[in-house]
Amino acid sequence: MKNSRKSCRPIVICILAVTITSIPTPNVSAQNGVIYLDHTVGSLGQSDSIACSVPLEFHISTFNNTGGYILAHHGVFEVNSPDGATWSPIVTVAAPINWNLYLSGTPSIYYYGLTGSGADTVFATKWVISGNGIPDGFDSVTWIIKTEIDCSQKGKTICLDSVTNANGGTTDWIWGTSISLVYPDWSGPHCFTISQCCYGLRGDLNYDGKSANTLDLSFMVDYIFRGSNKPGDCIESRDINADGRGPDILDLTFLVDYIFRGGPAPPACP
């Protein structure tokens, strides 16, 4: 079985090389496999809101349920806004997994129209050269798209979607597997309302969308005493006692009193 996979690999890759330059976007849903938004760093704990003035990351996963090995992995994402929002031009990286277990080298990433407005497009691809490929049952974050949105954009919308290849009009996503070519499904589009970075109570220092808790306390201890964390730029969220400063030792004391001694809750955001 292993030898048969190796023998078909060059054929599949050659077929894919021709296919991604000639096949129009299919009208049917994906046959097998899923590309999906696993989670968003910088969200507000709600499916439709993200925070401004904090680092924003879209963590995108690959789920292989094709029954075969993914030998070639190709597709295009786009960050856009239907109502004219702007953002810092996106940066895309391959997730920190051991790609060499599956595919040789580092996945290729190309950009089109990288302006921070209109549509920032990223072309993410990887072809196997050595190794068996991405196995059936693989389910992990594979791509991370990073940006940040200024709070002047509050109330507007930003979306993450899969799009037709900007360089040739080919399919959104296509895999060459050890069995056949497949068109994996995409969970999007995903659209979010841009909201103020502080919401509810102050103190969400780790931006997990929850009010101040022990995780935020640990974050602050690491920041103040170990220098291993850096709170985001949201002044209201990190200024837990609302004295116009922080995060500092006074905010840490305030948070300890609130969590463990029944002290007053952090003031509401403005």
How would you characterize the overall build of this protein?
The longest helix has 18 residues, at 2-19. 17% of the residues lie in helices and 29% in strands. The chain has two domains: 2-195, Immunoglobulin-like (Sandwich), CATH 2.60.40.680; 201-270, Dockerin domain (Type 1 dockerin domain). Residues 1-31 have low confidence and may be disordered. It is of the alpha+beta class. Helix 2 packs antiparallel against helix 4. Strands 2, 4, 6, 7, 9, 10, 11 and 13 form an eight-stranded mixed sheet that branches. It has a five-stranded mixed sheet with strand order 5-8-3-1-12, with no helix packed on it.
Short summary of the structure?
The protein is of the alpha+beta class and 270 residues long.
Q: State the name of the first-level CATH class of the largest domain.
A: Mainly Beta
Fold-level CATH name of the largest domain: Immunoglobulin-like
Number of strands: 13
Percentage of residues in strands:
25-35%
Task: Give the averaged pLDDT, no decimals.
Answer: 78
- Count up the domains: 2
Rg, rounded, reads 22 Å
Q: Which class best fits the helix and strand makeup?
A: alpha+beta
List strands and helices in order, with pairings.
Elements: H1 2-19, E1 34-41, E2 49-51, E3 56-63, E4 70-80, E5 91-94, E6 108-112, E7 119-127, E8 139-147, E9 157-162, E10 173-177, E11 181-182, E12 185-186, E13 190-195, H2 214-226, H3 235-238, H4 249-260
Parallel strand pairs: 1-12, 2-13
Antiparallel strand pairs: 1-3, 3-8, 4-7, 4-9, 4-10, 5-8, 6-7, 9-13, 10-11
